[in-house]
Specification:
The complex is a heterodimer of chains A (about 675) and B (about 220). Chain A contains 21 helices and three strands. By secondary structure, chain A is mainly alpha-helical. Chain A is globular, with a radius of gyration of 25 Å. In chain B, helix 2 packs antiparallel against helix 6 and helix 4 packs antiparallel against helix 5. The chains are: A mainly alpha (about 675), B mainly alpha (about 220). Strand 1 of chain A pairs antiparallel with strand 1 of chain B.
Chain lengths: ~675, ~220
Amino acid sequence: MWGKLTWQAIPFDQPIPLAAGAFVVLGLTALPIWVAAKGYIPYLWREWITSVDHKRIGIMYCLLAAVMLLRGFIDALMMRSQQALAFHAPGYLPPEHYDQIFSAHGTIMIFFVAMPFVIGLMNFAVPLQLGVRDVAFPTLNSVSLWLNAAGALLVNASLVVGEFARTGWLPYPPLSELAYSPGVGVDYYLWALQISGVGTLMTGINFVTTILKIRAPGMSYMRMPIFCWTSLASNLLIVAAFPILTATLAMLLLDRYAGFHFFTNESGGNPMMFMNLIWVWGHPEVYILILPAFGVFSEVVSTFSGKPLFDRRSMIVATMAICILSFSVWLHHFFTMGGGGDVNGFFGIASMIIAVPTGVKVFNWLFTMYGGRIRFNSAMLWSVGFMVTFVVGGMTGVLLASPAADFVLHNSLFLVAHFHNVIIGGVLFGAFAGLTFWFPKAFGFALDERLGKAAFWCWFVGFYVAFVPLYVVGLEGMTRRMQHYDRPEWYPWMLVAEAGVLIILCGIALQIAQLWVSIRSRARRRDASGDPWDGRSLEWSTASPPPAFNFAVLPEVISEEPYWEIKQAGSAGRPATPEAPYSSIEMPRNSATGFVTAFFAVVTGFALIWQIWWLVLLGLVGAYATFVVFAWRDIHEIEIPAEEVARIDRAVRDTTARAMHEEPAR
Amino acid sequence: MSTPALRLAPHPSFARSDLAQREASGHGIGGPAPKRIIVGYGFWIFLLSDVIMFSGFFAAYAVLFKNTAGGPSAHDLFDLRNTAVETACLLASSFACGMASLAVGERNLKWTQLALLVTGLLGLAFIVLEIREFAGFIARGAGPSRSAFLSSFFTLVGCHGVHVSAGLLWLGTMIAQFYAKGFRQDIRHRFLCFSLFWHALDIIWVAIFSLVYLVGTLPPELLP
């Protein structure tokens, strides 16, 4: 009846997972009860859960990423503490639990923190920057969000029911095959990723279509903001790379569930094929994450330097060059496979070449700052911190790209330090810069600067204190994922790394405090102008938060920095745009399709993990029924009448004009 | 006063029958492209992603082709006559789907439904033939767990079969939608996507037919 699921699945004998699981269960039940008791459910259902508004979906993505960042960070804290304690000692985490923690840490940080963070920022900012009202397929967008959340839920469910993979964040066979990983851990990993992967693929399709087909009149390719360009590149990579992930994980699933022999040791299977296929997805994935972050830095650096971005054209060319080259470097993840000198030589050189367009970008940002009137807002601090950190990470990357050096450093902590250097210093700093930058646009008030700067310094210093030691011990031969060790020369460095992670903990605490303080004092922080940073692109030309339809009339674009130009043209810092004749606006209707689909995806995924076949069937039938109900809908859009548009827009114009009058020069 | 660089004017896409709207390409000339273009374009992107997924399975098949682990090889198993009939069914099905497109263009419900029915029946015949082929292999001890070669064969060809089956489910839903809703614009957009999907499966099949069946039945000494 219940497949492999028995009471044994709940870890009553292990205090740490049990306590963590109890905490999650308590949180997951207490939160809805609290929400229901407060009477917020109808509001949440109407305004958020069923919302197909790209701005709300973007905010929910970022919220998901923030919550999962806490979970992933707790894992990191536990790993660092284990290695600080486990010199000549067993530490406090038994090997089978430690293995689950490093696997969960990587999986969560990549798939459920970095991905939703950058997708959230793209969701929020891209349609506003393009000067349009929504993405190409708004309901599909909501489906993407909720499928991503479904995957995250399954990963967290593994804390309480069963176990998570012990194979590392990429489940290399033959270890991940049924013979060596008979538990449900790898199945949790595989199904969670298949479900969220479908969501990500649909995001890719949605945004490629949006950016290529839905732009304000006059916005030619060369006039598109850089963040839109990097988002386009990132989504093209999603469309080209994620199907390979789906195929690869499907092969591993067939091996595990149906006795196939894709990656097994026996019957002609080929484990190295998994490494090749997974990294054909995996290396583009790195650029899927970093390119939108590059876009954020471009917007922030240009805005806070008060200058147009230096040589946009080379920035665009560099972005697209990375987009293409990213498919020719995957083998540098396993030079030790033994592909031979020619193969390793090709991929080594390609990996070094891909550093060149990134270098071009760094110079673009530096020259943008050169001669600018720079305001060191915390978004700008994250950007400058990124430039310094990312260059260090890039250089260790070029070092690793040399096959000869890689044979020494492969799977050492040097590698771990390298990719944390680029992912924390690149993607995460970019996400925080974007969060600081667009927060006032999303909510109408800016985050507290003092706490924001303090958080930046903790993260920045904490990062170096935590990861420079890993470079050192990596060079001294310490491999990754060690549950215990007995080399005395590594021990002090592990203690320093532990101190670093505690400094980062302070940074996170300060960020939570920043959110708390800023929300409490939001009335005082209210920004009525809609343009708190003296911005240059179209998102700053509308109100904060923008009305559901973003723009009462679609702007007509005739230059690269449309909003900056209009501010220059107007007198006294504010354009005298004539009130245009209003017409009614059709907006997509809210839909529960995404939420209901994700519900059935969770049911199906959970049933597949535990092999409860009748429940699998039930989940699939439910998903098909949801599809039919959506297909039978007669009214897709609601019309906002012209008078209503006029009323909202006049109110907005009134407040922004007054705000601008009170504060003419910034 | 200088000319404002940004002119705020009502956008033509909200005057539905405007000529500018129909000519809007999304390339920054006339603003957002019309709905039909957006839907078709998005679906093309999806199809391309699907082709990439198949390319993953094709790559695995190519890598594992010779790994028969002492079991039957492609040359021992494949029967080109069966494949020829399957191919004929699938191509005729796509022809019928093309006929349905014409009937939709003519707003002729009777012919639309008839053509869709023929499309579906031919698709079903294809699936039945494929299942029969698979069952025959398994009965001869050449199931997917026999060898890596057979694992990759069943996955690649089976994945196409799953696509055709999902297409049949979609087709049934489509017939019901035409019956219940008529030739409404959104239904026609959906049908456009369906026919793109159905034809794309043909293209995949042509690749399977050539790379799996034709190459597989070559005399072994001709293979590299």
